Amino acid sequence: MQIFAFILALLGLFGATVSTLLPSWKVSADLGLNIITATSQMQGLWMDCTWYSTGMFSCTLKYSVLSLPAYLQTARTSMVLSCVLAALGLCIASLGLKCTRWGGGAQAKRHTAIAGGGFLIVAGFLCLIPASWFTNKVINSFLDSAVPESNKYEPGGAVCVAFVSAGLLFVGGAIMCTSCTGKQQGPQNCPPNNKQQCCSASQPTDNKAEYSLQDYV
C-alpha cells in the first residue's frame, strides 16, 4: 500500500508540474462569429499563446506580476508551492517506507511516513485551490452577457490535469498516513481465571524433551 501511495503521489507531482507549465489554462471558445476565425488563443499562468491558421505558433510571456489579476497571482503561487511540498513529501515518505533500510526503526519510519503523507495532502489542497478558483472565474466570465463572444474562454486541459493531480496527491497522502496507523501486536492479556493456562500456552516450547510431571502416576 505504501508503494502504491508513493506511485500515486509521484504521478500527482508530475501532473502538477506539467499543469503549472502548460499555457492551456483557458482556451478561446468557439461561439458565433468566433467559429470562423483563423486563430485560436490560449492563456496560462506564465504565458499567452496563439495558434494561426498557417500552422504558426507564438507565445508571449507575462513578465509583469503586479499587472496580473488576483486569481492568476494566487494560482501561480499555489501551484509552485504545491509542487515544492509534493517533492518534499515524496522525499520524506521515501524514508518512511517499510521496504527501505534507511529511516531508523519501525517507530521512526511510522512517524516519517505520516509526516510525508501530511505534506502530500497539503500539496493536493494547494493544487486544488487555483484550479477551482480559475475555473470559477472562467465560467463566470463566459456566462457574463457584457463580455463579447470574441473574448469568451473555456477551461482548458491544464485545469483538468490540475484537478486530477490534486486527487492523486490527496489519495497518495491519505494512504501513506493510514498505512502506518496499525497497532503493534504485543503480548496477550490473560484473564484472571485462566491466567495459568494462557501464560503457559504463550511460552515457547522449543525443548521437546521436557515432559509434564502430571502425565506420570
Overall average pLDDT = 79
**Helix-strand makeup class:** alpha+beta
Order of helices and strands: HEEEEHHEHH
The radius of gyration is 29 Å
- Please report the distance between the alpha carbons of the first and last residues: 56 Å
Strand % is 5-15%
Main beta-sheet strand count, sense and barrel state: 5 strands, antiparallel
Signal peptide: 1-19
Protein name: Claudin
Function: Claudins function as major constituents of the tight junction complexes that regulate the permeability of epithelia.
Membrane topology: Multi-pass membrane protein
Provide a quick synopsis of the model:
53% of the residues lie in helices and 10% in strands. It contains 5 helices and 5 strands; from the N terminus they run H-E-E-E-E-H-H-E-H-H. It has helices at 2-21, 70-95, 106-143, 157-178, 195-202; strands spanning 26-28, 39-43, 47-52, 57-61, 153-155.
What attributes does this structure have?
217 residues, alpha+beta, 5-stranded antiparallel β-sheet, 5 strands
Can you give a write-up of this model?
The chain crosses the membrane at residues 79-100, 112-135, 155-177. This is Claudin. The protein has helices spanning 2-21, 70-95, 106-143, 157-178, 195-202; strands at 26-28, 39-43, 47-52, 57-61, 153-155. The chain has 217 residues and is an alpha+beta fold. A five-stranded antiparallel beta sheet has the order 4-3-2-1-5. The longest helix is centred in the middle third of the chain and has 38 residues, at 106-143. It is elongated, with a radius of gyration of 29 Å.
